[in-house]
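Question: Now follow the chain.
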Amino acid sequence: MNIPSNLKYTKDHEWIRVEGAFAFIGVTDFAQGELGDIVYLEIETVGETLSKEAVFGTIEAVKTVSDLFMPVTGEILEMNEALNDAAELVNTDPYEKGWLIKIKMTDAAELDELLSADQYKEMIAE
């Protein structure tokens, strides 16, 4: 299972990659494996500022629908448009081509409350 060490993780299986004042958010390799084949994403919060742990959308797999949660507070700048035609990118490349949203963080200190790769590995091993 792929758990990149340069990312931070949530207990709800989202990851965040920080690039300056911006960040990309997606679901982990573990999460996509548990969900199964991803068929649809609904993210209608572009342009909104949401607080940490708020729901920013849903991810639909063949057998279930799950909420997606903000790892940190921020303004949602864009959704990965490639997922409209190829939701399966979340399954095949969850950390690069399968990212979900790009945000502008409003409180970078919240990153310190997230899990490191090692902490996330421990959590999913339980």
